[in-house]
Amino acid sequence: MKSTKKTLAKVFACVMAFGLTFAAVGCGGGGSKSEAKKEKDFISEIGGTSETYTGAVSTESYETASAAATAYVEAEIVGEKESQIVATETKATFEGEQIATLNIPADITDGAQSVEEIEVEYSVSDGYMAASNSTKKVKVYVIKYETNWKYYTPLPETGATISKSYYDSVFNYEKYKNCTFAMDMDMDMSVKASASGYTQKATIEVSMSQFVQYSENAIYIEQTASFGGMEDITGGEIKDESMTIAAYLEKTAEGNIICYVKSSDLGSGWTEGDLTTVGFSSLTELTPFYDQYLDFTYFTKTENGFQLADENSEKFIELTLKQDESMGELITMFGENFDMDMFVKYYVSNGVLSGMRQELTMDAKMTEEGVSMKLSADVVTKMTCTNYGTTVVKKPAGIN
After folding, report:
1. pLDDT tens for residues 156-181?
2. 183 strand-pairing partners
3. What are the start-end ranges of the E strands in the chain?
4. pLDDT of residue 204
5. How far is CA 207 from CA 116, 161, 211, 241, 296, in A?
6. Buried b / exposed e across 361-383, counting CB within 10 Å, b at 16+?
7. Which alpha helices (DSSP H) does the chain contain, by range?
8. Mean pLDDT in residue range 42-58
9. Which terminus of the chain is more exposed, N or C, with fewer CB under 10 A?
10. Do residues 270 and 249 make contact, with C-beta atoms less than 8 angstroms apart?
């Protein structure tokens, strides 16, 4: 019996860690009848949605129109996947006043001698399957300047895969230097494990929130986490816990960063500390949406920004969680008995990524070395980034 309990405890600890990692990732489940209302309220919370991206021209120059069109497919559409260009064909050439009919911004066509519309046929392999025999075709506009060619990347159409240039444009880190970021996550998870007639059950309710203000010379962070509903291996109730940690960072006139921390767990006032106290190892990690920059080919354009394409949901989860070795092992352990329903939606306001909503419902079961386990989880997460250019960070009272 002791051996069985130890086996269960080990697997159980891994699964609980899995749940917390799932929560930290913030991946979340399918919509409901009230989804339209949820989205409307969220958009109002971030001050509405709007695009400022009008298109971009490549920074690289190419010797031929065909080379520029091929580069567009490889850089703006295919991304990290492997591709093969099948054919390129010029469909139309625009010169002089005809160029204006294409609605390409004037600052981009300034000095252009001509614009060619080229159809590129290509195939893609994403590493999850063998290269497909089917091909895709895309229309590309390439611009001839004096002696070279550049490709033009327009605003993606709703329903189409977004381009790398558009994706990079909404992650405008210059904007994030002065803004207010907020994150809220709620997770409900239940686990049941059995072995040799011995059964262990647990439920866990986790709520996490993070509030960060950024200005040129100071950052204020406040994190709150609460855990409830847990039962330990003996069946005893674990007392609900809640903890709040805050940190204030300030850049001195000499360019040094000083940090003060305050924790409800310690019950003390502000003391000098470092970022590791609040779970960070560098200032870069404090950047809004720091860990949300992914392969742009996962996303399709929406009227309010972009969202994770349905067929990419499982790949998104696997790639995100498999960055942690132990989590990758658990996903492999669950194998085909890992089902989930999820969406991830990103919202763009004034051309900057200003919000994200994620919901997930997950069910998994497995049998491994005589241990059977069932797990279910619901996760709801939202993030907002507002007050660009107007956020003021005040030094908390109690800091000398």
Report:
1. 999 998 999 999 999 887 888 899 99
2. 210, 383
3. 56-57, 82-95, 114-125, 136-144, 149-153, 179-195, 198-214, 218-228, 241-251, 257-263, 271-272, 299-302, 305-308, 338-349, 352-368, 371-386
4. 80
5. 54, 33, 14, 11, 29
6. bbebebeeeebebebbbebbbbb
7. 2-25, 35-45, 65-72, 106-109, 164-170, 313-321, 325-334
8. 95
9. C
10. no
Per-residue CA distances from 82 to 75, 125, 132, 335, 358 (Å): 11, 5, 11, 26, 29
Instruction: Please give the single-letter amino acid code of residue 32.
Output: S
- pLDDT tens, residue by residue, 62-82: 999 999 999 999 999 998 888
- Single-letter code of the amino acid located at 201: K
Mean model confidence pLDDT for the chain: 81
User: Residues 78-106: pLDDT tens digits?
Assistant: 988 888 999 999 999 999 999 999 999 99
30 — phi, psi (to 5°)? -50, 160
Q: Show the beta-strand stretches assigned E in 176-240.
A: 179-195, 198-214, 218-228
- Region 187-194: mean pLDDT is 84
Cα–Cα distance between 33 and 39 in angstroms, integer?
11
Tokens 């900057």 belong to which residue?
352
Question: From CA 375, how far away is CA 365, in angstroms rounded?
Answer: 6
Nearest alpha carbon to residue 224 among 184, 252, 251: 184
Angle ∠(89,92,94) on CA atoms, nearest 5: 135
pTM score, whole prediction: 0.82
